[in-house]
Design a protein that fits this description.
Layout lengths: L1 H23 L6 E5 L14 E8 L4 E9 L5 E9 L5 E5 L6 E9 L2 E8 L2 E10 L5 E9 L5 E9 L2
Antiparallel strand pairs: 1-2, 1-10, 2-3, 3-4, 4-5, 5-6, 6-7, 7-8, 8-9, 9-10
């Protein structure tokens, strides 16, 4: 009887602690995302040929963002950053980088985050990243201002592969 009670207690402890660990290490944005070009709209730049994003949890509240793609002109795109949802600025890296880029994220709720990107200390882009309730579609809405002072909005729709 003691063996059975001990086995039951041990099994329930493992389940309870694995549930806590899973709850602490879950980010609904984590995983790979592919741009659905036909469902997206672009005002600030030509439509890219391809774009894939990956969001990875790196322990605690730290995340890694990686963007790979091909621009409309066929050039390769790559951006990455390691960040937290704490509204602090974190450095971004990109191919052929000529400016110091930073990104800051702020969590609005479990399915929405706001972000801002600065280039050489000046706001270059801001926006929101929202996850559909089914968890299969992510929409990123970006806002930037061109040299004429016009606000440009892009809506990027991503799907899980």
């Amino acid at each position: 009887m003691w063996k059975r009670l001990f086995a039951l207690l041990a099994a329930s402890s493992v389940l309870a602690f694995s549930g806590v660990a899973k709850a602490q290490n879950t980010n609904p944005f984590a995983g790979n995302w592919i741009l659905d070009v036909s469902a997206s709209t672009f005002e600030s730049a030509p439509v890219p040929r391809t774009q894939t994003r990956a969001y990875q949890l790196r322990g605690g509240e730290t995340f890694v963002f990686i963007l790979d793609g091909m621009a409309a002109d066929g050039s390769r795109q790559h951006f990455s950053a390691t960040y937290m949802y704490d509204n602090q600025e974190y450095p971004m890296a990109s191919l052929n980088q000529s400016q110091l880029l930073t990104i800051a994220y702020n969590k609005v709720d479990d399915r929405t985050v706001e972000y801002r990107i600065k280039a050489d200390g000046q706001l270059a882009q801001s926006g929101t990243k929202e996850l559909a309730t089914n968890g299969r579609t992510m929409t990123i809405t970006t806002r930037s201002v061109n040299q004429q002072g016009q606000t440009l909005t892009d809506t990027l729709v991503f799907r899980r592969p």
